[in-house]
Amino acid sequence: MICWILLLIKLTSCVCAGTFVVNVTQTSYQAEENHHITLDWTFTTTTHRSLDSVSILCELILDQKTSVLFHLHEGVEVSESQDEQFSGRVHFDKDVLREGRIRLHVSRLRTEDSGLYLCEVKTNYGSSSDKCRLNVTAVDQSESQRPTERPEPESRGRIDLYVGLGLTAAGVAAAAAVAVLVRLCSASRRSIKSAD
Fold this sequence. Notes:
The chain is 33% helix and 33% strand. It has three helices and ten strands. Strand 9 and strand 10 form a beta hairpin. By secondary structure, it is of the alpha+beta class.
């Protein structure tokens, strides 16, 4: 009889653990260095379970090296365990944790941030993990060091053309007016001389 009870307890714990699942929302991310990215996972949760028992460990796995991106132990962030590579660059969105979401914002990306990211979640009712890949590409330094030239908008070029044509037309009109005045003055002098 005791064996049956122990077997029932063991089967119940296996069934409960089997219902807890962590899923990554996107399996592959692409970004450029110095930009930022948001890595996102979901996990099974219910409203009546406390999140104080939730432990989360998110790591970058690269060849034989593992770097801690984020660590939450029983609802408390453990920033001391974060790898120096991510220090000051990872922001954890606490507001979505109750909804069963892990959202990590990584800023000022570097090419060495490329690799496989594994996020493991442990609770009193089970544990699970899922992974995604991030590829950070380098920015061409020759382009970034070149001063940026702002192209003039097409409408500005048209305005310059219209102003130039207007000035030219005004110049022609002014020259014509001067020519008319010179003729009038000449005609006026001639008529004064003939009157004398």
